[in-house]
Amino acid sequence: MFKGKTIAMIAVISVLIMTSLLIYNVYISNTYTNSSLSTTTVQEEKSKVYLRGSGATFPLPLYEEWIEEFMNEQNNIIVDYEGIGSGAGQEQFFKGLTDFCGSDPPLSHEKWLEYKGKVLQLPTILGAVVVTYNVPEISRNIHLNISGEILALIYKGEIEYWDDPHIKSLNPAIADRLPHQKIIVVHRSDASGTTQIFTTFLHKSAPDIWPEELVGKTIDWPIDKTGRGIGGKGNPGVTAVVVNTKYSIGYIEYQYALKNNLPIAAVMNKEGVFVLPSKTTIQSAAKYALTTGLIPDSPDGDFSKELDAIIYAPGKDSYPITAFSHIFVWKHYDDKEKADAIKTFIKWIYTEGSKHVIEGYVAVPDEIKGIALKSINMIEG
Questions:
Q1: For all residues of the chain together, what is the average pLDDT?
Q2: What pLDDT does 24 receive?
Q3: What is the pTM of this model?
Q4: Topology given in CATH for the domain delimited by 52-127+327-377
Q5: pLDDT: is 32 or 166 the higher one?
Q6: CATH for 129-282?
Q7: Which pLDDT tens digit goes with each residue over 241-290?
């Protein structure tokens, strides 16, 4: 009997040993597999190239769409873009904090001279700054008519009420619906390319009312002294203020108005015609700009006269607050892989990007694409 118990005990111990060995082998196998997967993942992550950009909110919805499409096709390049305004984007770029920046206006002549031969400027897309408003008495199917002169008077605080005779005179069909309500005037609170575009238009269309000193990314808004001015950060911020504030008026990029179903004013152009933004009217302004000789034929050229060429452009079909938006890149990157990734991204924008242009933007003309694509042979790393 003792012998039988001994045999049974030996059998149990053998089973336990075999089970332990089996568990150990599985553990070792899993550890090796997980280690291999971990090593592979690390290697894959190391093979990815990261591009960081920041800047203008004017093209932000489009850039988000483009980046998503680009990364679907180029899974070894990760692009991140933060909409913080043209001014802040330029500041980060020139401090070396980003690889590229988005800016609505090109570099000033002085800034271009400072970085001549080092920075390339690429017009990426055409857009429009629109005038939007929140006046419940005006039906959504009616577009308020407005001029640069009246906008300048509103933003200077000299037109106070919606039923002001100046506004009524441009809108006889709805003059009796314009309320005796104070106009709440919304502008950007941050350094903004959209503001530079808008104030350039005010100066070009009403120079006697809106002086050159009030043109720029950030200005001392006269309307704020009346207590009726409100600042919003970025295009999204201005949009939100207008949406939530009755009897307000503001300026935003076209796409933001479309996305939020906001009313859009018809703006008087240089020919005295009230024009709404559209693909046709935006392209009309761009076509004129290309005839002026103010846009250089190389991305390392001086684009500082570009806004003068396109804003308040002649032509009965031209929308008067049309502008290009840009990205700035360095001509030389210390990292060759980063330089190659930038070139790949640029090539995609100008060969594939026009297939993915969302509502509110218009692809740049072929002439501009040709200028921008020259950068691929200029960027070094």
A1: 91
A2: 45
A3: 0.86
A4: D-Maltodextrin-Binding Protein; domain 2 (3.40.190)
A5: 166
A6: 3.40.190.10
A7: 999 999 999 999 999 999 999 999 999 999 999 999 999 999 999 999 99
pLDDT tens digits for range 171-206: 999 999 999 999 999 999 999 999 999 999 999 999
β-strand pairing of 145-146 with 100-103: unpaired
- Distance (Å, rounded) from C-alpha 285 to C-alpha 319? 6
Burial of 321 (0-12, 13-18, 19+ CB in 10 A): buried
Please identify which residue in the block is written with the tokens 């002549």. Answer: 109
* Other CB atoms within 10 Å distance of the CB of residue 379: 19
DSSP string, 77-130: EEEEEEE--HHHHHHHHHTTS-SEEEESS---HHHHHHTTTTEEEEEEEEEEEE
Report the 10 Å Cβ neighbour count for 200.
Answer: 23
CB count in 10 Å sphere of residue 33:
10
List where CATH 3.40.190.10 sits in the chain: 52-127+327-377, 129-282
Taking the mean position of all CA atoms in its chain, how far away is CA 214? 23
Q: Is 163 helix (H, G, I), strand (E, B) or coil?
A: coil
What pLDDT is attached to residue 45? 53
